[in-house]
Design a protein that fits this description.
The structure is a homodimer of 154-residue chains. By secondary structure, chain A is mostly helical. The first copy, chain A, contains 7 helices and no strands. Chains A and B meet through α1, α4 and α5 of A and α1, α4 and α5 of B.
């Protein structure tokens, strides 16, 4: 694994993580109805920090291996979609549109897990927490959107 | 060049482009002082569409060539930073923070041009309009920030 590559993938991840600091949930989100499976607040930064770190390590592991082009293209797509989700949901409060972004992100990450696994199964394994957390995040986005029909922007 | 790869890089670019539709300049930005070199409004979507298209083609060209790992890592970092800039400036109205994002984006794209050029000079050439436009965008971000000291969020 190359340290330079890891640091560049971490710069990309830092851009995605910054959206969580710039666009905070705040009183608008606190006042919304949420499903019973909503994780506690502290779990979100812990989960995302872990995911960003593991996915940057996975990308740095496969980046110099032959045939990594498709895996890295999917990595680029996921980090752009990930950076888009938070401003769409918490900034613009477009919950339906955020659900669409989340759906595309889920498909891209699922494809990414397969591609990484085929090149280096350990790197594929490192991406599984990401896919698992996206299932929770997608269910949460869906329920908050459907259970608060008048709360978002249109 | 692989069509699949091109389409995945275009999904990433579409995420960045979507920020320009979700976070429009609007009356807040229209009311700010702007420098004389500000391009006309129609130039922005034209420039960005061209840049996203050319950079997706460039990435799809180099992705399957040997030694593309660093080039693709930089491509991933630029698309995440690009997706972050618009919500930071037009959504959160954090003009100083957006200037910081722009500075990191400029350095990443400059490094990306060099890396792409070394692998395939035609692909490097396709990225030059991106770097040129970022010079204009950075100068504009700087002047709008400095010339409107009380307009942004802090």
């Amino acid at each position: 694994m190359s340290l330079n590559l890891f640091l560049i993938f971490m710069i990309a991840s830092a851009a995605a993580a910054a959206t969580g600091i710039i666009f905070r949930p705040g009183s608008w989100y606190d006042g919304l109805r949420k499903p019973s499976f909503t994780p506690p607040k502290w779990a979100f930064p812990v989960a995302w920090s872990t995911i960003y770190l593991l996915s940057a390590i996975a990308a740095a592991r496969v980046a110099l291996l032959p045939g990594a082009g498709l895996a890295l293209a999917l990595w680029a797509a996921q980090i752009a979609l990930n950076t888009l989700w938070t401003p769409t949901f918490f900034g613009a409060r477009r919950m339906a549109l955020a659900m669409g972004v989340m759906a595309v992100l889920w498909v891209v990450v699922a494809g990414m897990v397969v591609q990484f696994w085929m090149i280096d199964w350990r790197s594929g394994l490192m991406l599984l927490p990401y896919l698992a957390w996206l299932c929770v995040a997608a269910a949460l986005n869906w329920r908050v959107w459907r259970d608060n029909p008048n709360a978002g922007a249109h």
